[in-house]
Amino acid sequence: MSPRLIPITGQELVRLLEEEGFQVVRVRGSHVRLRHPDGRVTTVPVHPGETLRPGTLLAILKDVGWSKETYERKRLGSR
C-alpha cells in the first residue's frame, strides 16, 4: 500500500459514506453534515471538481472511525 491516500472529491466521499449507512442531515453552503444510525457524525466540504486536502480527508476518516486501509478498500471497491 502506498503512503498517500487515494484522492477523492467531497461529492464522491458523501456518496461513499451514504453507501455505508450515513445519512445527510444538513447542508449549509458547501458543507454536508452526515450522521450514521450508531451516532457517528462528520462534515464533508463539497466544492465541485476539487479533491479533498489530505488533512481534511484524514479528519473525516477519524470522525467516521475508518483507517486509511479501510478507506482505500472502500474507495477502490466503489469504482
From TrEMBL:
Q: Does the keyword Protein biosynthesis feature in the UniProt annotation?
A: no
> Keywords on this record?
Endonuclease, Hydrolase, Nuclease, RNA-binding, Stress response, Toxin-antitoxin system
Under the heading Pfam families, the entry gives: HicA_toxin (PF07927)
- Any one GO molecular function term: endonuclease activity
Q: Tell me the protein family, please.
A: Belongs to the HicA mRNA interferase family.
Its name, as the record gives it, is YcfA family protein
